[in-house]
Design brief:
Mean pLDDT: 91
Structural class: mainly alpha
Shape: elongated
Radius of gyration: 18 Å
Order of helices and strands: HHHHHHH
Distance between the termini: 62 Å
Helix content: 55-70%
Strand content: under 5%
Number of strands: 0
Largest sheet: none
């Protein structure tokens, strides 16, 4: 009886996302996009360029980082889905992926290919690119019939569904970084 109940909850290999997985990832992607927009709208140039320390990123740089990183992360999904389904049980859990988005106690430097370099003239232009790609990811998450859980992320310890969720939690992590900048005593009032 237990196995029958478990089978009703977990998708079989080769099956599309469960409705619950789809709702969770769509809601998280929409939430982080909305949150990012609300955190950066109506900020002055001084607020956007403020750095709490010389090593810290400004809000402009955070948004540029997301505009650079998310296309790279999205490409990993596309490349991973071209591979055959994975037979192995992957060690990452959804809870770990979600925790990554809110736990800023463990900080690491990003890879060189994702460091902001001033590629965008304005944070608004970077944000527009983030939102355009987010729309594409949301359309995919809402409609795909592919087995995201059955495909291992290339060069990763998680499945493709978890990586899609990771893209959103990565944004959440940087939204918290923006809030840290805003909470700094030296942050400009306007």
């Amino acid at each position: 009886m237990f196995l029958f109940a478990l089978a009703a909850v977990l998708p079989l290999a080769g099956e599309p996302m469960t409705q619950g997985d789809r709702q969770r990832v769509v809601a998280h992607l929409e939430m982080t996009e909305s949150w990012l927009v609300s955190e950066v709208e109506n900020l002055s140039d001084a607020q956007m360029k403020f750095r709490p320390t010389p090593e810290s990123w400004s809000i402009t740089e955070v948004v540029e980082h997301l505009a650079i990183a998310e296309p790279q992360y999205w490409q990993r999904i596309k490349d991973s889905m071209k591979q055959p389904p994975a037979a192995e049980k992957l060690p990452a859990t959804d809870a770990q992926i979600l925790w990554y988005g809110i736990d800023r106690t463990n900080r690491a430097k990003t890879g060189e290919a994702r460091v902001p370099t001033g590629k965008y003239q304005t944070a608004a232009a970077a944000l527009a690119d983030v939102r355009k790609l987010r729309s594409e990811m949301l359309d995919y998450a809402k409609a795909t019939q592919e087995d995201l859980r059955g495909h291992k992320l290339l060069e990763g310890n998680m499945d493709v569904y978890q990586w899609l969720l990771m893209i959103s939690t990565h944004s959440q992590r940087h939204i918290l970084q923006i809030r840290e900048n805003k909470a700094n005593a030296g942050y400009p009032r306007r």
